[in-house]
Each structure stands twice: as C-alpha cells, then as structure tokens.
Amino acid sequence: MIRSCAIDGSEDVIIHSIINDAAQAYKGIIPQDRFSDPYMSMEHLKSEVADGVAFWGYEDEEGNLIGVMGVQDKGDVALIRHAYVRTNQRGKGIGSKLLAHLMDDGDKPLLIGTWASASWAISFYMRHGFKQVDQQEKEQLLRTYWSIPDRQIETSVVLCDPSWSTR
Fold first, then answer.
1. Which of 1, 73, 78, 149 has its CA 20 to 30 A from that of 56?
2. Domains of the chain: total
3. Digit-coded pLDDT (tens) for 27-53
4. SUPFAM superfamilies, alphabetically (predicted)?
5. Could you tell me the pTM of the whole model?
C-alpha cells in the first residue's frame, strides 16, 4: 500500500533508516567526496521536510514501511528528491509503484536529479519514460530548482518525465 508518511517523530526514524540502508549502493560509485556514512543525517532529513519535501511510502503486507519517495513542489514543476527502497526489498517493483503514484497524482512535470554514476537509477527512470536533459539544461535546472553545491551539479544528471517535452 502507498501512503503519505509523517515526519513528526513517529516515522522519521524509519524513513531515515530506509534512506541510509538503500544509499549504501552509492558507496564506491559516486564521487568519494560526496558520500558520507550515514548518507543522510537526521538533521538533513528534517531540513528537507521543513523545505517542503513530502514523503510517500510503500508498506508491505505486515504494514512495514519498506520504500519511500520524497517529492517537492517547486511551483511549475515537482522534484523527486529522494527515492529509496530497502536493500532486501529491491527488484520487487516497489520503486515503480511509488513512481507511478507520483506520476499519476500530480499535474506538474516531474524532474529528478541523480548521480551521473548511478547507472541503475538513470536506467530505472528511463524505463518509466523519463529522458535525460542535455548538459546546459541540466545546469540551468539544478541551479533553478535545487540548492546543491557546485560539486554536486558537476557530478549529477537531470531526468524529466514525458510531460516535460510538451512544455
């Protein structure tokens, strides 16, 4: 089941755990200067929520949260800010279900920024109709909609959902 998540002390620890478990896939793949352990601190998670990132979660049959996606409304677009599934639950379509929910639920184009070296993430979004933008548009979009350091801009890509091309 897909549902809205609460970052009010009741689920933040679970979401934090899912993110940091799944982000271990980045270790040794993304630039070493961009990886930390834990990948996301609890303070960073809370600041993301304070900045308008809303989390959606996928529960298994027992009601355990096993995957999350964070989305942020930025006016004319929505950003997928976080997309993580517990390591032991990957390959079961959970990410696809969460993404389909976000694509069906919104009326704005979805953009995703991810690491250029995270080929599995890029392939995942491309399988769902997203297209990678060119270098110039990537830099413009990252500087317009995200607040990330230049080093992250250098090492990232941006993908846009199918509605982006009709803008």
1. 149
2. 1
3. 999 889 999 989 999 999 999 999 999
4. Acyl-CoA N-acyltransferases (Nat)
5. 0.93
